[in-house]
What we know:
Elements: H1 10-20, H2 27-43, H3 56-81, H4 90-93, E1 102-104, E2 107-108, E3 114-115, E4 120-123, E5 134-137, E6 142-146, E7 151-163, E8 166-169, E9 177-180, E10 183-187, H5 188-194, E11 198-202, E12 207-211, E13 218-222, E14 227-230, E15 239-243, E16 248-255, E17 258-263, E18 268-272, E19 282-283, E20 302-307, H6 317-325, E21 333-336, E22 339-341, E23 348-350, H7 354-362, E24 366-372, H8 380-384, H9 387-404, E25 408-412, H10 428-445, E26 448-454, H11 465-471, E27 474-478, H12 495-506, E28 514-519, E29 521-529, E30 539-540, E31 550-558, H13 559-568, E32 574-576, E33 581-588, E34 591-597, H14 600-612, E35 617-621, H15 628-638
Helix pairs in contact: 6-7, 9-10, 12-14, 14-15
Amino acid sequence: MPMQTDPQNRDEIDQSKQTEEPSGIDTESVVSEAESDIEREQMSSSTIPPQTTVPKKVIIIAAVVGVLLIGALLFLVAEMFGPSKKRIEPEDYFKTAKGIPVILNTTLAEQRGYRTEKSIYIPINMLADVDSHYYHDTSLQEVLYATPTQILSKPIVEAKKSGEGRLTAQEAGDASFLSVDGAVYADIEIVREWSPVEIDLLSDPERLWIRTDTKANYKKTTVKKNSALRDDANNKGSILEDLTVGETVYVLGEQGGFTEIFTEKGYTGFVKKNALDTAGEAVALTGKKAPAYNGHGIGEPVCMIWHQIFEGSAKTQTERFEKAIEKTPGVNVVSPTWFSLAAENGAITSFGDPSYVEAAHERGIKVWGLVDNFNKQVDNLKVLSDHNARATLIASLMAEAKRTGLDGINVDFESNSTGLGGLSKACGIHFIQFLRELSIECDKAGLTLSVDNYVPMSYNEFYHRDRQAECVDYLIIMGYDEHYGGSDPGSTASISFVTNGILNTLKEVPASKVINAVPFYTRLWKMTPKDQASSSAKIIEDYSLGIGPYALSSSALGAEAVNSILVENNLTPKWLEGEKQNYVEYSSEGCYYKLWIEDAKSMEPRISIMKSQQLAGIACWKLGLESASLWNVIYEAYGR
Length: 640
């Protein structure tokens, strides 16, 4: 680069140039040019800057640097705003190190399958939500599978994990079911044989695709242009697989400009909307459906009433029935409370009387014998989880049904957190197995099977109403006891309680199988002043009623008893629009009373919701507690 310098340094400059120039350069010419440059510099005005010339070498270097900078900038822009090229390897996506991946419908299961030398095994509880008919019977050490007509069974063979996603049987020969540390695994071949499923074994990596969903939940479409399937709904998502034109995929949803899909290779991810054809009709993942249970419904709307039979009244039950039933015309089913679970071996007590059935049949009324679990000395879990006890219980019921000429069985197994004298959460799967086994025997005998259930709540989900609905003819909602002995005062069955009970049940059970039960009783709530209460009574520190602190108690009253209270105390009920019920409160002999009334007026809106939802019928608790006016409303709606 030319430099501004003093003439006296010329020799130094010239010498420097001589040492730096490569061979073949005319040094004299260079010196001459340098001298001319210095002279021109001395002659020029000090205010005019000298002209400079940039060598080509520098220009080229600058250009290269510029190109590199622009390239780096473009790379950064591409990285920031362009689609990601990062990939998730199949082994990482499917987590093959944990065992053989299993895609259940469109979801990669957390649990894994395992290999033996001959087959692949999967945990049977993996299928619980879509095929709950597998039952691990620990009393037999077998796996049972309920069909509508028989119980299939296979023994369980002990096995151990040998590493690398494999199971090794400790006994020679093939086994349909293996047990490892208490968990049961099913050979996929027995699953194919017993379950309404389709199973594909995919490769690279090895994985299972099990299709059980028979509902039309998935819109099927095809890929119209080659695209990347990503793990997130944006271009920065990592690539799961490359989609090709014509490939079949299933639409799961949309998010922004992306569509969530499932591919037949087992991936769930996102692709741009414009990469897919318009989705067609919704389809099911498999067309294989479970065999249906034979129905033994009565072929008309059910108008049922329970008849409570006590030990002291068992001898006169037929006479009492004939007298009481005259007040309830239109009834087509009566359910006497005849049977009760009596022992942990499945034995029952019975008040069954053939003459009672004959008297009902003479009036065109069917009889469904009720079996309960109210014996507080019997551990329900021990009974229901034991194969022999279940068999004894079922055989006893079938024998009594044949002896008395019953038309059906009504199961009234109510809950108890301990399982003693009632069902606990631990009883849930065993109760369902009991119903399935009972339904097979009822089907053989031509009996109608019904089962009583609470209004759905989170604490009674273990009743599995959807599974009950598969094998029973009718599911009866006990639409009462919203408030009960021991609770705060309130209605026995307000309209919201009844409505929610029906609507929530219909989420799991078809309306054609649902019967709603109504009460013929209500509770008279009594507040007794502290100075009149027993010393053991729980005292409520409440002064709002004008009687000071009090003890709370209640008693169940039938419709006629309630009418007597209204007349004797000259009370005029007040209509509560929220509860759709009449209500009174009053004082008598120093005590305070509250009463939410079940009567003809309150029954009308309850029947209205039942009719609007097209339920299978109505049930009533219990015979003898009704009033004529209340029954007339029911007769108009359901009477024959």
